[in-house]
């Protein structure tokens, strides 16, 4: 099994044009700077058997990160 996308004829999302765009993208174009905060909130939920009340600080940190990221993106 290959890690290459199966569709190379342009019939799906991985045609030659999108493949070139993805391979030549800038480092931050598809990077979510809040991914670490999201992972921490998932880990908290896992540690606490899904008890959301135990993870409020993690959720708030993620919301604040995401809000700041969206505001920066809108300013550009």
Automatic annotation (TrEMBL):
Protein name: Cytochrome c oxidase-assembly factor-like protein
UniProt-listed PROSITE patterns: CHCH (PS51808)
Organism: Hapsidospora chrysogenum (strain ATCC 11550 / CBS 779.69 / DSM 880 / IAM 14645 / JCM 23072 / IMI 49137) (Acremonium chrysogenum)
Organism placement in taxonomy: Eukaryota, Fungi, Dikarya, Ascomycota, Pezizomycotina
Function: Required for the assembly of cytochrome c oxidase.
Region Disordered: start-end pairs: 1-29
One cellular component term from this protein's GO annotations in UniProt: mitochondrial intermembrane space
Subcellular location: Mitochondrion intermembrane space
Record keywords: Disulfide bond, Mitochondrion
InterPro entries: COX23, Cys_alpha_HP_mot_SF
């Amino acid at each position: 099994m290959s890690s290459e996308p199966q569709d190379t004829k342009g019939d799906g999302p991985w045609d030659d044009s999108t493949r070139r765009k993805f391979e030549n993208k800038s480092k931050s174009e598809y990077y979510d700077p809040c991914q670490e905060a999201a992972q921490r909130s998932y880990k908290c939920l896992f540690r606490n058997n899904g008890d959301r009340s135990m993870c409020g600080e993690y959720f708030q940190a993620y919301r604040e990160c995401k809000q700041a990221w969206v505001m920066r993106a809108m300013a550009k």
